[in-house]
Amino acid sequence: MTTVDTTDDGVDPLAGGAPLFECAVDASVVAAVAVRAATGVPGVVRVEPGLVGLMGSGLRAARQRIRGLVPAPTEGARVEFEHADTVRVEVDVVISGQDQAAAVGRAVQRAVAGAVTEATGLAVTGVGVSIMDIVWDSAPR
């Protein structure tokens, strides 16, 4: 989890230079934003988690359901905070066989980086995209 300063210039002159307020951004929030952005890219059929992602997301989803919350999907995305205000994201996708893999991968990188920065204020230092499968009979979106 990291803390993000949500003020325009980062300081309140009346408070002696202290931030007006801060919010904490958890890796699961960043992952949910990344998954949503990736699934909206034309040519992406779905975001697909690996074995480690399934186990971690299953535990998180169970904890949230116990609390009565509906968890946002985070399966297929991994987040690593590099500093307090920078993050690197990895996304695993399945794409349509009717699209160029490199073009879809670049589009996913742009969409995820933009969405994470817009939603959280974090600077994205990189987005790694792994194409886990190609579905040949899936129509492009």
Supply database-style keywords.
141 residues, alpha+beta, Alpha-Beta Plaits, four-stranded mixed β-sheet, globular
Our Rg estimate from Cα atoms comes to: 17 Å
* The CATH class: Alpha Beta
Structural domain tally: 1
Strand content: 25-35%
Under CATH, the topology can be stated as: Alpha-Beta Plaits
Indicate the percent of residues in helices: 25-40%
CATH-assigned homologous superfamily: Cation efflux protein, cytoplasmic domain
The number of strands is: 6
Strand-pairing-aware structural class = alpha+beta
Mean pLDDT, to the nearest integer, reads: 80
Low-confidence stretches: none
* Helix-strand string: EEHEHEEHE
Task: Tell me which CATH architecture applies here.
Answer: 2-Layer Sandwich
Biggest sheet statistics: 4 strands, mixed
Given the structure, what is the number of helices? 3
Shape: globular
How far is it from the N-terminal to the C-terminal residue, by CA?
A: 34 Å
Organism: Actinophytocola oryzae
Protein name: Putative alkaline shock family protein YloU
InterPro entries: Asp23
Family: Belongs to the asp23 family.
